[in-house]
């Protein structure tokens, strides 16, 4: 997690660093929400009209759905933003739930899952990060076919060494990333959140790209 230090002015104002303004697509008169969690930590969230959502990588699928529903022009733009914001909120919520599940002892190291038992995993060396699965992501693995499961250990081993090497999803709150891999003619995604202070990675969901999109829509 990157940290930016800012000074509070005489009237309580702060100036956000340029890097942050670019990251969130902020412009003058945009609104920010300050969120305080149960531990007293303060987080900054961007308001709806300025956020560049976590779900940008589903944009083509969202547009396809909207076009099928007859949306065009300004209607398409408005509904596209609303749909992307919904999926962003879902991923944010999944990150919170996954971290809470891990804290409550409801997670499992990836190589201990029954779904990967047939993969002859060699765990003689320990990675820098612990990659943990919750009930949701374990279920995602269970429904994958054998040839798809064969690709998973290499992905998780890569995450153990350097989770930041993969694509970071644009969002205001969690360090959420995704890894892409192919099996046959399909694209697959592993979406995960990095909790750097704990050297922890919690996998949120795994599956074919189109399947993940439909799955997140159902949760939304």
What would your notes on this structure say?
By secondary structure, this protein is of the alpha+beta class. The chain has 2 domains: 7-48, Pemi-like Protein 1, Chain: D; 95-209, 2-Layer Sandwich (YaeB-like fold), CATH 3.30.2310.20. It has 7 helices and 8 strands. It has helices spanning 18-24, 59-68, 73-103, 135-142, 146-149, 152-161, 209-219, and strands at residues 32-36, 42-46, 107-109, 130-134, 167-168, 175-183, 186-195, 200-208. The strands form 2 sheets. It has a 6-stranded mixed β-sheet. The chain has a two-stranded antiparallel ribbon with strand order 1-2. A hairpin with a 2-residue loop joins strand 6 and strand 7 (186-195). Helix 2 packs across helix 3 (73-103). The radius of gyration is 19 Å and the shape is globular. The protein starts with 17 loop residues before the first helix and ends with a helix.
């Amino acid at each position: 997690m990157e940290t930016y230090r800012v000074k509070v002015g005489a009237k309580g104002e702060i100036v956000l660093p340029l890097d942050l303004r670019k990251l969130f697509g902020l412009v003058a008169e945009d609104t920010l929400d300050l969120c305080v969690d149960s531990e007293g930590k303060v987080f900054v969230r961007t308001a709806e009209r300025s956020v560049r959502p976590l779900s940008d990588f589903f944009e083509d699928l969202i547009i396809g759905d909207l076009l099928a529903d007859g949306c065009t022009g300004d209607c398409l733009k408005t509904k596209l933003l609303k749909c992307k914001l919904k999926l962003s909120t879902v991923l944010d919520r999944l990150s919170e739930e996954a971290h809470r599940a891990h804290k409550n002892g409801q997670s499992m190291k990836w190589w201990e899952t029954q779904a990967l038992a047939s993969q002859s995993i060699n765990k003689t060396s320990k990675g820098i990060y612990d990659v943990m699965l919750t009930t949701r992501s374990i279920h995602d693995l269970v429904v994958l076919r054998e040839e798809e499961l064969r690709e998973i250990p290499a992905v998780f081993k890569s995450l153990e060494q350097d989770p930041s090497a993969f694509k970071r999803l644009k969002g205001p709150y969690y360090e959420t990333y995704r890894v892409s891999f192919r099996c046959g003619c399909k694209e697959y995604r592993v979406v995960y959140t990095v909790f750097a202070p704990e050297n922890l990675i919690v996998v949120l969901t795994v599956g074919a790209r189109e399947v993940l999109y439909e799955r997140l829509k159902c949760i939304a």
